[in-house]
Design goal:
single chain; alpha/beta; Rossmann fold; eight-stranded mixed sheet; 8 strands; 16% strand; globular
Length: 291
């Protein structure tokens, strides 16, 4: 067993070395940390929330490596769940049946993608294959967390009152003032003030649904969420909703491709925002060129 652990551990290190300078920053100590040691020291049972920018090969590869490393360090093969924002929980049976076939090598990558994304070309979501492949390799569960867009459109066009109550979680609450401020700052100029409230309701509903689904659907105490960073930044949004439902520790990592950032952006992510605080528990700077 020790030999297997070491092999997986070293493989993870070698894969990360190939990416370039990938450094994990602890926002509490304000220091870069030893990546494997830091992950090893996280709770053995937890929700590890992987906040991302979508459709980035660099970021999705790093997320897959973090999943592989955490699972290997805890000898948790076959005992973890990966939940994904991009998949709807209303299709859970289809997703789980397809993933079971995928794990049994009855479906290849493209066939699996065609089933879970019937309206997209396989290459449209190819960057996420690394996460699916790693979950398959480690014999984990793979689930959808989100509410279908058609249902969220009802909220954004007609208000949450128009949505069938069966789709509103019992834990549903609007986010706090800071979450609304960030959301409004992002959306103003794209929607009217009248529309803004409905879009915010839909945003908070999404957070609530995803939190409810990861808690209700997982069979394990080690869980990973792959989700857009706005839902998790400043440990708000989805993280706030998840804390209401789960007694497990929650740890957040924000993944950023430093090649896409300015020096000011990098310094900002290393600092505490004066209003919102640290952007996550840890920031994974990928492709970071240190001066």
């Amino acid at each position: 067993m020790l030999k297997i652990f070491l092999a997986l551990f070293l493989s993870s290190l070698l894969t990360f070395s190939a990416l370039g300078d990938n450094l994990l920053f602890d926002t509490k100590t304000k220091m870069f940390t030893d990546y494997p040691t830091t992950l090893a020291n996280l709770p053995s049972q937890m929700h590890l929330v992987l906040g991302e920018y979508h459709y980035s090969d660099v970021i999705q590869k790093a997320q897959a490596e973090v999943i592989a490393t955490v699972v290997a360090q805890r000898n948790a093969v076959g005992n973890f769940t990966v939940g994904w924002e991009f998949l709807d929980y209303t299709n859970q049976n289809i997703i789980q049946n397809a993933f079971s076939q995928y794990k049994n090598n009855e479906l290849d990558d493209n066939a699996f993608l065609k089933i879970i994304f019937p309206d997209s070309k396989p290459e449209d979501n190819a960057s996420y294959l690394r996460i699916m492949q790693e979950t398959k390799k480690q014999d984990g569960d793979f689930i959808g967390l989100n509410l279908p867009r058609a249902l969220k459109k009802i909220v954004t066009t007609s208000g949450i009152e128009a949505l069938d109550p069966q789709y509103i979680p019992a834990n549903f609450e609007l986010g706090g003032e800071n979450y609304y401020t960030r959301f409004a700052d992002t959306m103003r100029g794209h929607v009217t003030e009248e529309q803004l409230k409905r879009y915010y309701d839909a945003q908070c509903l999404t957070d609530s649904v995803m939190a409810e689904q990861i808690v209700a659907t997982t069979n394990f105490d080690l869980n990973f969420t792959v989700v857009g960073a706005f839902h998790t930044d400043y440990n708000d949004g989805y993280v706030t909703q998840l804390r209401r439902l789960s007694s497990l520790p929650i740890v957040t990592i924000k993944f950023v491709d430093s090649a896409e950032l300015t020096a000011e952006d990098i310094e900002y992510f290393k600092s505490d925002d004066p209003q919102y605080g640290p952007v996550a528990d840890y920031v994974f700077f990928l492709n970071l060129v240190q001066q």
